[in-house]
Amino acid sequence: MIKLLIADPHPIVRKGLEHLFSASSDVKIVGTVDNGEAVLEFLKKEPVDVILAEIDLPKLNGLTVLRHLKTEYPDIKTLMLSAQPENVYGFNSIKAGAAGYISKTENVIILSEAVTKVYHGGIHLSNALTQELAFGNRVNKNGTFFKKLSTRETEVLKLLAIGKKNKEVSQELDINEKTVSTYKARLMKKLKVDNMVDLVNQAKLLEL
């Protein structure tokens, strides 16, 4: 029996996933949480085999949670389930330690199969992203930009894009403010902008 933890900020999504897996004889939902910090707190109390997590989690975003899991719980498999563009965040999720990435637009049957696949040691990605990773081919300029970014740079960019200040970014990622400023400078250089307004606008454009 696969012990599954669901992490998503939206109650209706959590309830829908609970309903989906309630009919499964192979998967047991051991808990649901609505933020990144709650994922790590839950793991201190209950054994989990697979985590199904949204990237856009409050308190700690999905990529930051992956960083903690990779260090503290390396045996747990994490499958990212998100509405964010796969060509941007799928690539960085895998770099951060996820065992797979699945879009919220996918068929529910594929979701169930993906949970089983990552539990048994496989990696779940769409055919398009699998080809891009295999051949180093980015199909559009947005993907090319994001391929240049490290996982940490992507985390910082995402937080800045939603209006977080340097201090808030440093607290969420557990780094000092000077380091955040360094990442901002790198991001501006890589994304070819010279001010924060353009950096945030570029981040939003890249997600379209």
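Next protein, fold it too.
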Amino acid sequence: MRILHCCLSCFYVDKYSYQENILPKVNLDHGHIVEIIASTETFTAGGTLGYVNPAQYQTAEGIKITRVPYAKWLPHFLMKKIRSYKGVYALIEKFEPDIIMFHGMAAFELLNVVKYVKKHSNVKLYVDAHEDYTNSGRNFISKYILHKMIYRSIIKKSSSHIDKILYISQETKEFLVDAYKAPENKMELFPLGGEVVPKEEKLRLRRAVRDGLKISEDTLLIMHSGKLDTLKKTDSLIEAVNQIPSEKILLLIAGSLPQANEQLWEMIQNNSKVKWLGWLNAEELRKYLCACDVYAQPGSQSITANNATCCGAPVLLYPQKSYLALFQDNVLWVKDTEDIYNALYKLIQEPMLKNRLSDASYRLANKMFDYESLALRIEK
């Protein structure tokens, strides 16, 4: 089949491990012909969002990418919100897709995709939604003008021609219903995924990391990562680790530390139970997720919890709505420092619990998060 991925509601970043990168790659691995149409929005050298010139090129795997320019019927600062582009319809006609995966609902360009689907009734259209009220509609103009007026009208005109609306979390589903009045009967949970690490590879990486850091097998190794603002509750995690009456425990922390939470650095420095790793790329983080006994995210949400599960790591999480809908037998639920302490102490006292939770992570990863399985859902 011919599968087209449209990354026009958001940025597209080359050589990353986002959903927009991995799903097309897996589609290609499954023997399909794959192309990507993307906006010019991407990460710049400094790691911030910026823009590149329109261009055509290929990924390392051989997937053709066409970055299209914004239309000019409005000034650029408005057009990058409306998300209308030049030449998309012609590109779709040229490629003649059997399946279109439109990443993100919020774009005027969805109307051109629907225009093509109307003329080719055999084409399946899937729309993948990542929006929720933590990343969208956070001020009056955005919420009521952009989302509840402009995008809602686009989705109303398009929804009857969409086969499935794939949402990544419970919060996203609630946003789609409230902001866009999207039809719930077309919605399916389609979580952000990962590539499941085979057990043999996990054990190899575990030994390599632990040997490199001189960490014994009987040490409880905890991994924590992200942009460490106050919502991450890193301080509660460190406090709980410090209270554990054992030296056979180590907390690895990776990520960035915002200025507003600088006091956290004082808790990390000169702490024998905490090791700061700094910023890790996806491949480096994967190694540590394979090496740890538990991945801890006791505050705000992170896709890394999904990735940790794909590495066979148990997870320690705050009971967010999305987490409650996704995670099952592989999770230790925590709300505060006392809960974290009790969960970690239990892992120390019951060594076999780590193995049971790890097995549960692998079962969940293969069922819900494996990009191999997720790709098959849009290839039907």
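About the second fold: The two ends are 10 Å apart (CA to CA).
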